[in-house]
From TrEMBL, chain A:
One of its GO terms (biological process) is cytochrome complex assembly. One of its GO terms (cellular component) is plasma membrane. Keywords: Cytochrome c-type biogenesis, Heme, Iron, Membrane, Metal-binding, Signal, Transmembrane, Transmembrane helix. It comes from Nitrospirillum amazonense. This is Cytochrome c-type biogenesis protein. Residues 22-162 form the CcmH/CycL/Ccl2/NrfF N-terminal domain. PANTHER family: CYTOCHROME C-TYPE BIOGENESIS PROTEIN CCMH.
Automatic annotation (TrEMBL), chain B:
Residues 39-186 form the Thioredoxin domain. It is found in: Cell envelope. This is Cytochrome c biogenesis protein CcmG/thiol:disulfide interchange protein DsbE. One of its GO terms (biological process) is cytochrome complex assembly. GO terms for molecular function: disulfide oxidoreductase activity. It comes from Nitrospirillum amazonense.
Length: 173, 186
């Protein structure tokens, strides 16, 4: 009788699990930044990485240029590194790009009158909504919270009758 | 006051519907969410000097736009395009028509092989007063280009006055670009 070294029924779940784990692990490792783009100075490369994580890829618009494989994102990564090598501070390098592409290139929009609604809107909603809830809640508790009036003698008698019927019903079954 | 509370959802609905209607109209006119405002508007064209696409012919440089020696300057278009760019092909007949009407268009072939760019112009016609190559794409970045085609209207003083993102449609031409060229040429 031939015996398979790994019975198929066993090996399939193991394989599937391995593939899944590998897929999940490789996600964060997959980088758009290619080795040939990187700077030889690790400190400067780290600065470039940090800056480019907050810069929007204008082609894909929901990825940073650090994540994006778009050719323009690569060009911008190279440009950014070039600026840093030339001695730009982080702020100067970012300004170089906002001069050309506007605040839109920043994934973290600056706080200024045009973005007040964006930055503070949620808090206004929270405070406003909380205020309304508090106001309503307080009005409900201080106002005549309807306490049911006690039962009259007649109602008590009726209730007792109903309860007794119920008990008898159980007894019979 | 309490009696009118039931109107709140209606008012909210009308407000939202009104906003949607306004946005739909704007999107109809080409103001789509992916249409980014340019920060270069009203600024002088960035410094650049690009080599010609065809050897021996003129390239395109910042000094060609706006006033130059002995000339008061004229309104010009700068069109970023590429042979690999499909929307550029759909825009091409409109550029040919504009050139036929005497509009001065400077072309910049963006990140392209020279032979491919030359072949397309030979096949479809050349609407450009001069065509240059931007092989590295750096000049495009200086203009704020984030995709081809993009077209810039440059006034007589050499300032950027309008940016068209994506191909110029007949509507864009009629409603925006031609009126702007006429106004700036006065």
């Amino acid at each position: 009788m031939r015996r398979a070294l790994f019975p198929p029924a066993r090996v399939t779940p193991v394989l599937v699990t391995l593939v899944l784990v590998a897929t999940l692990l490789s996600g964060p490792l997959a980088r758009a930044v290619q080795p040939d783009e990187m700077l030889s100075d690790p400190a400067m490369e780290a600065r470039a990485r940090a800056i480019s994580k907050d810069l929007r890829c204008l082609v894909c618009q929901n990825q940073s240029i650090d994540d994006s494989d778009a050719p323009l994102a690569r060009d911008l990564r190279l440009l950014l590194r070039e600026r840093l090598v030339k001695g730009d501070t982080d702020a100067q390098a970012v300004a170089y790009l906002t001069d050309r592409y506007g605040d839109y290139v920043l994934l973290r929009p600056p706080v200024r009158p045009a973005t007040y609604l964006l930055w503070f809107g949620p808090f206004v909603l929270l405070v406003g909504g909380g205020g309304i809830l508090l106001w309503r809640g307080r009005r409900g508790s201080t106002g005549a919270e309807a306490v049911a009036p006690p039962l009259t003698a007649e109602e008590k008698a009726h209730l007792a009758l109903l309860m007794r019927d119920e008990d008898e019903g159980k007894g019979r079954s | 006051m309490r009696r009118l509370m039931f109107l709140i959802p209606l008012v909210l609905f009308l407000g939202l519907a009104g906003w949607f209607a306004v946005r739909l109209k704007q999107i109809d006119r080409g103001d789509t969410p992916d249409h980014l405002p340019s920060v270069m508007i009203d600024k002088p064209v960035p410094a650049f000097d690009l080599p010609p696409l065809v050897e021996g012919q003129p390239g395109v440089a910042a000094k060609d736009l706006g006033p130059s020696a002995g000339e008061s300057g004229k309104v010009r278009l700068v069109n970023f395009w590429a042979s690999w760019c499909a929307p550029c092909r759909s825009e091409h007949p409109i550029l040919m028509r504009l050139a036929g009407q005497g509009v001065d268009i400077r072309g910049i072939d963006y990140k392209d092989k020279a032979a491919d760019g030359q072949a397309i112009l030979a096949r479809d016609g050349n609407p450009y007063a001069a065509v240059a190559r931007d092989e590295s794409g750096r000049t495009a970045i200086d203009f704020g280009v984030y995709g081809v085609p993009e077209t810039y209207v440059i006034d007589r003083q050499g300032r950027i006055r309008y940016r068209q993102v994506g191909p110029i449609t007949p509507q864009d031409l009629q409603n925006r670009i031609l009126p702007l060229i006429n106004e700036l040429s006065k």
